[in-house]
Amino acid sequence: MTASPTQVPGREGMWRDLLPPGRRYLALPSRRHPVVVAEDRAAVLHYVRQSLLAIPPPMPGWLYPAARAALAVPALPRILPGLTVTDQDLGAGPAHDTLGDIGRLTASGPVVLLDHSHDPARLLLLIFPPDASHPELAVKIPAGPQAAQSILRETERLRALAPLPLGVTRSTVPTVLGLLRHGDLPALATGALPGAPMLVAYHRPGHHARPGPVRADFVAAAEWLAGFQSATAGAFAPLDLRPGVAEALDDRLPRPARVGLHALRRRLRAHLAPRAAVHGDFWPGNVLVSHHRVSGVVDWEHARTAGSPLADPARFVVSYCEHLDRRTHPGHRVPGHHGLIAGRPGAALAYALDGAGWYPRLIREFLAAALHRLGLPAACGRDAVLAELAAVAAEATDPRFAEAQARAFILLLAAEETPWPF
Q: What is the CATH number assigned to the segment(s) 197-414?
């Protein structure tokens, strides 16, 4: 199937411009609004099936299992949405100029283009060596000037981390290969890391409803955090909220919650811990796993060379709880989690911190182990999660998401009289 430039809307036009002409691609879940555009080659489709396909909550539950089944049978990919990009689709002159160095890279081997980041302002282009089963290069491409700033910020943070003694985690941090040109905007090229995002398994049916797979996720995260933080540990300093969080929330929280926020800050400052490098957005979507171990961590835009060692473990807890009830109708019980009712902001996190059952026990064990390693009392665990939830609310760019996180923070503050841990 071919398309003329007049048929291509803005977002589709962007990813079409990045695909080398003269090749056939499969677009999932649809040609018009794809999440994954993969070159129609056996090795590439096998990689997509194993490492990228999941069931994100906005999509119908049957969609990705059906796509996985189709990709597994050589004759069936022909029924999936397909497209062929030609030189005519790219237009003349300026369209070719926008490819710049990226166009030369994509000409060297098969490609997969991803539009499934939780940051919709960026695309990710994976470039494979000829006949290889895994990508060699990853290129982040901004959709506009604001996203370009985040690309430059991540480049700066990765270069700042590179001289640090990262120890056994060195191979899990992307290596910056350089900045490429995409029109007038920069694109970040790094080495591609092995493994599949932890979120892929998380979104498959039944994964987060069973103790075994969930425990494996937390064990993998804990092992990586221990290695990363131990290698980069520095001088002791008081714990605190992330810089700017208190100021950002002062105008958005009701007075009782502001009082609770400042009380939380005082409690944190009463404890000392070794500062360490911080990823800053350590959630399952950014954690790559292979054979039940972390093989890579991506998206380092919010990284710091020295910060609170509680930030990353707490962010992992907050984000892991975020989707527990996403596939359950509001007001119904969440399968596998007795006592958790879907639909209320912060309910899953409140259940994790203060509830009963295998999942709350696992969360408390994960936090207690991190605190013990840092020489901090187990009672700091709840405060660490509250502090990170406040940071998520303060940093969120989507107003509805920010409001939901603020409401969750207020809910957990109201329940903090419960002795913790218990």
A: 3.90.1200.10
